[in-house]
Amino acid sequence: MSVEPGQFIPDEGIPSFGPVPRFRKTCRRWNAEGHAHALTFSCFRQQPFLSRDRTRTWFLEALQEAGKKHSFDVWAYVVMPEHVHLLIRPREANYSISAILADLKQPVTRRALEFLQASAREFFSHMRDEQPKGKIVHRFWQRGGGYDRNLFNAEEVCEKINYIHDNPVRRGLAKDPAKWLWSSARYYFERTDGLLAPDLESLKEFRLRDGKLYPR
Ligand code: NI
């Protein structure tokens, strides 16, 4: 469906942001409907594996597939050369962030290995990781879950989305957020047919001002 920026339709069935008690201290992995997760994860040894359109496309395809499989909305994303930031909102109460992360990462690794096998075998050495016991594995992503944080209210969500969108600007890769092709900012600010449109219908109403997002 097509939606105008600043006039997003509130999702009736989902608890809206509103004031919510903070569970962060006692229950960091508290999974609940209507709560967004900010995820960050990096390429193996911070190498710029995501500096190619090919690998970026693989990642966005994995993101789209994982969103369908695990029923989450994508609220914001940015693909940087050596890491990724995402803001997702699971639509159901039961979900597993580690299962979601596996489905975001594994397809990219698989496609990278297939590609290198077929046409760039010399690049395998960049992905090579020798385990303590001598086993060799090839990694696209840095080991471990990366960074995962629950966001509980509209202010935090807007702050995080602005932070995500500003990444390429802080790094000097783009003059303004919407100029970075590999980000949801284009869709927020320019209504461009981005590569992967974020699921803005489920975001509570907000307004855009001076290139930033604010709660209503
Ligand atoms: Ni970053």
What would you say this structure looks like, in words?
- This protein has 216 residues and is α+β, with helices and mostly antiparallel strands.
- It has a single domain, classed as Transposase IS200-like (Alpha-Beta Plaits, 2-Layer Sandwich).
- It has helices at 53-69, 97-119, 124-127, 154-170, 185-190, and strands spanning 36-42, 72-79, 83-90, 128-130, 136-138, 147-151, 206-209, 212-215.
- The strands form three sheets. Strands 2-3-1-6 form a four-stranded antiparallel sheet, sandwiched between helices.
- Strand 2 and strand 3 (83-90) form a beta hairpin.
- Helix 1 runs antiparallel to helix 2.
- The chain is globular, with a radius of gyration of 18 Å.
- It starts with 35 loop residues before the first strand and ends with a strand.
- Residues 1-33 have low confidence and may be disordered.
- Nickel (II) ion (NI) binds at residues 80, 83, 85, 167.
Structural class determined from secondary elements:
alpha+beta
Helix run count:
5
The CATH architecture:
2-Layer Sandwich
SSE order, one letter for each helix or strand: EHEEHHEEEHHEE
CATH C-level:
Alpha Beta
Name the shape in a single word.
globular
CATH H-level superfamily title: Transposase IS200-like
As a percent range, the share of strand residues is 15-25%
Compute the number of structural domains.
1
Give the strand tally: 8
